[in-house]
UniProtKB/TrEMBL annotation:
Gene3D superfamilies to which the protein is assigned, alphabetical: 3.40.50.12500
Protein known as: Racemase
PANTHER family xrefs: BLR3294 PROTEIN (PTHR40267)
InterPro entries: Iso_Racemase_Enz_sf (IPR053714), MaiA/AMDase (IPR026286)
Length: 247
């Protein structure tokens, strides 16, 4: 047998890289990221983190114990430009600084974004400080989420919620029913509606909701993707996913 050894040629640079940490039970967030990244010069790499049910502030905070190991396994020993931690209430429970520190132990060079911190950035960008909130969570988690916004000087005028204890059940919420519920939220005294939780099917209905409500609508996945794109300096206009991307 004749052997022919040839020299490989390696690429000299790569697309901007986003590493996504998603809950092990999340049906939605990867779909939303992929729908927005499709056709763009951005690379997405995903790893899942163990999620504990029922959802409480304690179990949400406990997830952060695994962040460093989960991050290490996203392209081991390779550079990631941005790591997105895909849990809104989990960020509130553990604290952004804790999440950032644990991500950077594995990927020191990576910028770190989360849904709740991205939502605050989006509200500030849009000049909005009066909102209504919708969540699928129980009361205890809702109190923490509302408190987070209020500490950031965002006035929460109303809260509507499902009172679901399991992340798996949140992921099974019917999109048409969710649209019907959200379209009836009272926004009289609010400038925007924020829909919390990466597992809810919100991104695909944001345009319709904004037309129906005549208000800005933000969601966990939408703001997380928006901030991830900002971090990697992706500036192209994006239509179809809410007024935020045209701000």
């Amino acid at each position: 047998m004749k052997l022919n050894k040839v020299e490989p040629k390696y690429i000299s640079k790569s697309n901007p890289r986003i590493g996504l940490i998603t809950l092990g039970s999340d049906f939605r967030i990867e779909k939303d990221f992929n729908n927005m990244i499709y056709g763009r010069d951005i690379d997405l790499y995903v790893n899942r983190i163990h999620c504990y049910n029922p959802l409480t502030n304690e179990t949400l905070a406990k997830m952060s114990d695994d962040i460093t190991d989960v991050t290490k396994d996203i392209l081991p020993d390779q550079k990631i430009d941005c790591v997105a931690y895909g849990c809104t209430s989990g960020t509130v429970a553990a604290g952004y600084d804790v999440i950032k520190e644990k991500v950077n132990l594995a990927k020191p060079e990576a910028k770190v974004t989360t849904p709740i911190t991205a939502a605050i950035k989006a509200l500030n960008k849009l000049g909005i400080d009066k909102i209504s909130i919708f969540t699928p969570y129980t009361k205890t988690i809702n109190d923490s989420v509302v408190g987070y916004f209020e500490k950031e000087n965002i006035n929460v005028n109303s809260l509507t919620y499902f009172d679901i204890e399991s992340d798996l059940d949140i992921g099974k919420v019917d999109e048409d029913h969710l649209f019907d519920v959200l379209s009836k939220v009272d926004l009289t005294d609010s400038e925007a509606l924020f829909v919390s939780c990466t597992a809810l099917p919100v991104l695909s209905i944001i345009n319709k909701l904004e037309e129906k409500l005549n208000k800005v609508v933000l969601s966990s996945n939408q703001t997380l993707i928006w901030d991830s794109f900002n971090v990697i300096n992706y500036k192209e206009k994006i239509d179809g996913f809410g007024k935020l991307f045209n701000s």
